Amino acid sequence: MAAGSFKITIHMVSSLDGYIAKKDNSISWFETPDNYEKGSVITDQEAAEFLKAIDCYVMGSRTYEHALELSESYGWPYGDVPTIVLTHRTLPVDRSNIEFYAGDLHKLINERLKPNYTNVWLVGGAELAKDFIRLNLGDEIRQSILPIILGDGIPFFDQVGQEKVLHLKNVTAYKSGMVELHYEIRN
């Protein structure tokens, strides 16, 4: 990324049929037993370098609550990277890098994110992703599709309400059977 540039990536993991969680909000299906022999493998060093480039995470309150719940067993997945949780509710916080925000999304981006960060990742949930897409606030979408059909659940793209033209930047298939689609959003 060029120095001084700012980008918001909307990232979501979904089933092949477009669900990000089961109706009960569970994601136990994230670990699938598939093995695609031609798939790429990311080393721990490559993953660490990639994650180091993300300088802020944004998420909705339900994603935050789910991440807190999972962190009891697996640890906090976002490390010490600043994380902004969009909510009108009072939620527990036990990390100094967590900040809560309730208000206008344009104001959040222009007054809080752009002056302080360059590579912001929106990591959930579906309603928030939909708001960012509708308001033309996202620059790209990275959708990681797992090799499973859920048949029902919480959809990623449910009633976005407008057509969006995308430009395919990359497709990567992994050994796990996951496929990542990387699109630029054309506004």
How would you portray this structure in words?
The protein has helices at residues 44-52, 61-74, 105-113, 126-134, and strands at residues 7-15, 19-21, 56-60, 83-86, 98-101, 119-122, 140-146, 154-155, 165-173, 179-186. Helices cover 22% and strands 29% of the residues. The protein has a single domain (7-186), classed as Dihydrofolate Reductase, subunit A, CATH 3.40.430. It contains four helices and ten strands. The mean pLDDT is 93. It has an eight-stranded mixed sheet. Strands 2-8 form a two-stranded antiparallel ribbon. It is α/β, with parallel strands linked by helices. The chain is globular and about 45 Å long.
Structural class estimated from helices and strands: alpha/beta
Strand content: 25-35%
**Which runs of at least 5 residues are low in confidence (pLDDT < 50)?**
none
Domain module count: 1
SSE order in H/E notation? EEHEHEEHEHEEEE
- Tally of strands: 10
Mean pLDDT: 93
Radius of gyration: 16 Å
- CATH A-level architecture: 3-Layer(aba) Sandwich
Question: Which word captures the global form?
Answer: globular
Helix content percent band: 10-25%
Tally of helical segments: 4
CATH structural class: Alpha Beta
Task: Quote the CATH topology.
Answer: Dihydrofolate Reductase, subunit A
CATH superfamily: Dihydrofolate Reductase, subunit A
Strand order within the widest sheet?
A: 5-4-3-6-1-7-10-9
N- and C-termini, Cα separation? 19 Å
